[in-house]
């Protein structure tokens, strides 16, 4: 499943937060949160967007620490209405 992860740490360009377009083999946001909170590190596949073609391409795998995660958003999912 694909996620946009906001990390509470500076980016290389000097922004106060760092965002990752990531993929992890789970079926829901809840499963991903469970994987994050039960492990010190989780290995995700990171994607970048090609500015010319607007297509995502893999930049390989990276381990992230759950202590720096500030927000996680599901990408490429059907929106659900919360009531």
List key phrases describing it.
mainly beta, single chain, 45% strand, SH3 type barrels, 5 strands, five-stranded antiparallel sheet, globular, 83 residues
Structure overview:
By secondary structure, this protein is mainly β. The protein has one domain: SH3 type barrels (Roll), CATH 2.30.30. The chain is 11% helix and 45% strand. It contains 1 helix and 5 strands, in the order ββαβββ. It has one helix spanning 29-37, and strands at 2-7, 18-23, 41-49, 56-65, 69-74. The protein is globular, with a radius of gyration of 13 Å. The relative contact order is 0.29.
Summarize this structure briefly.
This protein has one helix and five strands, in the order E-E-H-E-E-E. A hairpin with a 6-residue loop joins strand 3 and strand 4. The radius of gyration is 13 Å and the shape is globular.
Shape: globular
- Look at the helices and sheets and give the structural class: mainly beta
CATH topology: SH3 type barrels
Beta-strand percent range: 35-45%
Order of helices and strands: EEHEEE
Q: Distance N terminus to C terminus?
A: 24 Å
Number of helices: 1
**Proper CATH architecture:** Roll
Estimate the mean pLDDT confidence.
Answer: 89
Give the number of domains.
Answer: 1
Major sheet characteristics: 5 strands, antiparallel
Using only CA atoms, what is the Rg? Answer: 13 Å
Low-confidence stretches: none
Strand tally is 5
CATH classification, class level: Mainly Beta
Helical fraction equals 10-25%
Instruction: Give the strand order, joined by hyphens, for the main sheet.
Output: 4-3-2-1-5
